[in-house]
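Model it.
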Amino acid sequence: MGYVTDKSVSMFIHPSDIQKTAGTWTPTLSSNVWGDVRGAADAAFSLAIPIKLYSNAAAYRNCKLKSIDVWYTIGTAAADDFATVELEKMSLQADGTAITGAAVSTTCDTDHDTAAERLAVDEHKMTVTLDTPAFIDEDDVYVLTLTVDAAATTVFTIFGARANFDLVL
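Modeled.
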């Protein structure tokens, strides 16, 4: 039996699906664009972007995650730091066994491969590429974690993310 592979599939992740820590976040619709806006505050926060793709225990019959695009804006003042861009892979276990996790090796695009580039005042589209694209097993869960240390007047807006993958059926 042959497989059908579509190599240019993507799935959008709405800002309301992204978990946010620390600060006051306001869902905002402006000029037909949805975003979650974090009020200015001198504190660090994290974003947990869930990568919700089809999974399957059968080899090569699921999604092969290749990259994740993240759209955000930093306004008013640059952040103090934006060091953490980490893709987490959690492995779900059988009853009575602890869930395990590990970081997945990734590379950011050349405009975002340093914290100084990521924290600048600007409109950003950051692409995080898996160094080794991965088929998603039914027991695997992926979450992209971003940690930003905002300055006192930094206004951060997250517009969403997009998972890019091959779909194999």
